[in-house]
Amino acid sequence: MSTDKRLPPLTLSSLDVDRIERLLEKDEYHAMPGVEQLMQELDRANVVDPEEIPPNVVTMNSIVRFREVDSGKAHEMTLVYPRDAGRPGCVSVFAPVGSALLGLAVGDRIGWAGPQNRPLELEIEQVLYQPESSGEWHR
Fold first, then answer.
1. pLDDT in tens, 108-132
2. In the chain, domain spans
3. Architecture of the domain whose range is 11-134
4. All residues at 6 or more sequence positions from 92 whose CB lies less than 8 Å from its CB, including other chains
5. What is the pTM of this model?
């Protein structure tokens, strides 16, 4: 669950939301640690057609650079569906940090519970690749 009371706005692709909601219907995903937060994020998001997603927003299969605000430690990860989460440099949208990243724009900050429920805050620095801005709707 987010540790920040001032949540940034989220913009999500209707295609991503449809795919995530289909996964949420499966029992195997209900026990995953980030599911509750992910459902809350879906509920509060502004959902638009994929063609309307700004290029600076984190969508599924985006490669994003973000940093931990307190430590300054930078990360570069690809936000993926659970089936691809085992690949190096990938984080599942069902993981707490994955659900925190989804829908944020460059410059946005959000808090979330990190390892051992330690509060962490991250800031989106750059969206290095986004399927929607590349015209890749099948990913």
1. 999 877 777 788 899 999 999 999 9
2. 11-134
3. Roll (3.10)
4. 32, 34, 80, 81, 82, 84, 85, 98
5. 0.89
